[in-house]
Structures are given as C-alpha cells and as structure tokens.
Write the structure tokens for this entry.
Amino acid sequence: MGDVNLSVTLAGVALKNPVIPASGTFGYGREYAALYDLNILGAFSWKGTTAQPCDGNPPPRIAETPAGMLNAIGLQNPGIDAVIREEVPNIARIFQGPVIANVGGFTVEEYAENCRKLDAVEQCKILEINISCPNVHAGGRNFGTDAKAAAEVTAAVRRVTRKPVFMKLTPNVSDIAEIARACADAGADGLCLINTLLGMRIDLKTRRPVLANRTGGLSGPTIFPVALRMVWDVYEAVRLPIIGCGGVASAEDVAEMMLAGASAVEIGAANLRDPYLCKRIVEELPEVCKRLGAERIADMTGAAHE
Amino acid sequence: MKQSAFTLERVRPLAADTVELRFSGDTSAITAPGQFVNLALPGRFLRRPVSVCDWTPGHLTLLLRIAGAGTRELADSPPGTVFDVLSGLGNGFTLSGIDPEGVILAGGGIGIAPLYGLAKALSRRGIPAVAALGFRSRADVFYLDEFRAVCDTVLVATEDENGLVTDMLRQYDSRRYVCCCGPLPMLRAVYGLPHLTGGQYSFEARMGCGFGACMGCSMPFRGGWRRICKDGPVFAREDIVWET
C-alpha cells in the first residue's frame, strides 16, 4: 500500500487533510503560528466574530471538569471590521490554506451583515455560522435550539454570500437531526457539530458557581461520545457534508469521527492543553489510516453506517 | 514558549499547604522573573499555571500552594517524576522600568514566589529592595531566609499578629516604586496606597491555555480587555484601571 491520500472536500472546498483547529481555541492563528508552520493544517476556524467588538463575560470564565473544561468566554472578539482590517492580512502571512470564518451574531440581520462583509474576503472559503454559543444571551433567543430560528438565520446568510455556509449546531436540544434538516431545507451547504454542552460547577468553599456567568460550555474528551452520536444521527438525517467537532484529542478520534459521518474534523479544547496537538495529529494520520486499511481518508466518511 | 519535559528532583515542605518544587529541565525559554510555567498533570485536563520562583540553566524552582486535588497530586509526586511543561509563558517584570533608587517588593502568600526571582535579579544589578511579605498566620510564613539573602530589608506581616502588608507599607513610605504579587484584594489595596506612585503588578487568574489562545483569563485594562496569560501576568501601574 502506497502513500495515504489525506485530502478531503467540504462543499467543493479542497482541504489537504481533514484536521481543523476549532473556533474559540485558535484565536486568529497568531499564537500558534509562533509555535509551528500552520500550513500543515487542512484549514482553521477563527474565533467567533460579531459585528461590534465584544468584551465577553466577567471572570472567572474557566473551570475544570473530569476529562474536560467549562468556558464562559462570551464571544470576546475585536469585531468584524477590525478582524478584516487587522487579522485577515496577518492570516495571509501565516497560513495559505482555506480559512473557515466563524460568524457570531445577536440578531438575524447581524449574521447577514457579517456574512456580506466576509463574502469579499478571498481567503475565507467557508462561513461557519455559530448559532450555538451557550454563553451569549440574545434577548432570551437562542437561534440554535429552535428549528424555525435556525432556518431563518440560514436563509438570511444564504442570500448574501456565494461562499459555502456551514451552520454550527448546538447539542443542547432534544433532536439535533430536526435542527439539521431545517438548516438543510433553508439552503445550508454543510453543518458543523457540536458546540459545547451547557454545564456548571459550584465552589464548595464559597458555595457559589465557579463561573461568574454561572453556566458555561462543556468541552474536552468527556463530550466525544455525545458528539460522535450526534454526527451519526445527522449523517443519517441529511445529505450535507459534516464537520465533526467535540472532544477530539487524537488521530484515532479523527478516524472515529469520520467513520460516524464527518467529512472533516475540528479539534478544540485539546489544543489548549497541548498546543502542538493538531500538528501531531496530521503527522500521525497516515499511519492510523494504513493501520485501518484506508488508502483515501475521504473513504472513511460514514463508513460505519450500513 | 517551549514545551519540554521537566524532572522533579526535590519537594521541600515550607509551611502549611506550601511546598518548594525543584526540577531539572530546559529553562532556556524563561527570560524574566514574573513569567510562569504551565504543568500538565496526568488525569487532569487543564494545565496548572505556576509562577517561576527561580531558575538557572538546567534547573527550575517553583513554590506551590496546595489548593485542590491537582496541586496535592503534584506536591505528592515522588522525585524522578517527569512532567510535560510549557515554559517561558507571559511577560514578567521589566527590570529596566524599576526605579534604580530602590523598590518595594510587596507579596501576599504564594504571591511572594516570583518576587524572590525578581529580588535576586535586582540584587545582581545593585538595586536596593525592601521585601514586604504578608501571610495569613505565623504558621503560613515561608521563604524569609531566602529573601533576607537577597534583600536589604525584609518586613513580615501576618494577619493574626500585626495585620496586613498594606498597614505595614503605610508606615514605610520612603519608597515610591512597588512590584506587587498576591491575591486580587491585596493588589487593589497596594495600588490604592497614595505614596506608591509607580509600579508593576502581577495578576492571578483561572486560565484555559496559558498562551493567549482561549481568552479565558481576560480582564479589563486601559485600552480594553487583555489576557493575563499573554499580555501579563505583570502589568504596569499605568495600564490598570482601578479607581483609587
């Protein structure tokens, strides 16, 4: 058996491998570019970006959990205009591959406006629409937990861009396949799942929640089986490419996520513990594929289904 | 920043729930007192950020307060245990910014750790330093002999005997410049002392990554929210936005 072909495609966008650092764990690439050449990556998903600069939630924003962590950052970012002006030119210097622009928003109009601006940014090949952040509160409305609202955002951004639109889904719903179908019917080109699971911790000494925001999003290896199951369910429900995300921490996890139905895989919280992890996973993938008898990694997508 | 293996050589108990850890390993990424390292512990997802107390080529000294199960495991590790460490994190104290006429090193509890490395660096440059060290009680006091070896004067405050570091510093007002590290309420109190018009303050925070990627430890400073781990942990007085 010769060299393993690691290339994959996401809605027509070619990636040299399926490994993508997940939004919110990779900033705009600066911190990691100081550690290794980012061009080894298939793509990267930048920090969720909103129309206005956003300070996020008060500290503390981080708590440890068994095999994972809670965060309640609250979408701290410099705003879409500053990102296009200051981060995009820097990204072009440190990474020549496709960038996934993660887009936050507090209203349907804001999502659309952000996407309209990003449509002109050549290097952003995919727009990943974050309708699933558990740490921001848009007037009580959570777009990702309601099929109709999810479809509304999807349709609104679909109208303003020619770029592939991937909706990032929340696991905090009773039937994620229903949300996935609503996004597909409204014109999504793909889906990314899952975002974090809503959770909390209490400090025994102070008898108060550890996080100032009270609740936060659970991530890390502890959520991998939940993410895997949801990727499986959504793969059965819709014919759209899926970026699998949630608790991935090894090349074997990447393979497992692809077997469940993912076309590419995002790695999130594990980067925070091991900043070199994505590089190592890319380097280990050929050996793992050989061991699993896969000459083309793309052939593994959904291969665990009947 | 550098990721490398550090071997625990010795654990020395210092006081109640406080130990000194000595490691061997590559310290080449550490460039200033006040920086920190981030240790991975087996079976714990988040690394543990710990201030550098002292370092030489090949050797690292950390002071650790046992705050929970993770730090307890670290303190109980046998010599020879190897840890995955990210070293040389954050911006430490800027020596060139310190008043060469003299400086007060104000530390509270485990916050005295980076001030020891700073005191050593100042002593090498001939800058006189007064250490004002605060502890909860007499049983919590540690590292006085070490500080006495590198400082001109060492003042000690314990809450059960003579009060807080700030009470002591109110009476000791001949110096204008302070380097401070301790819990947030102490930082605020020292910042509020009117005679200390210049200084550098080292902040503590719950961190996700420790290298600037996750925005988990951000706090408001002049010019916006900044990351304790990457933009700090040491900030100049001018960058702090507390009201006095």
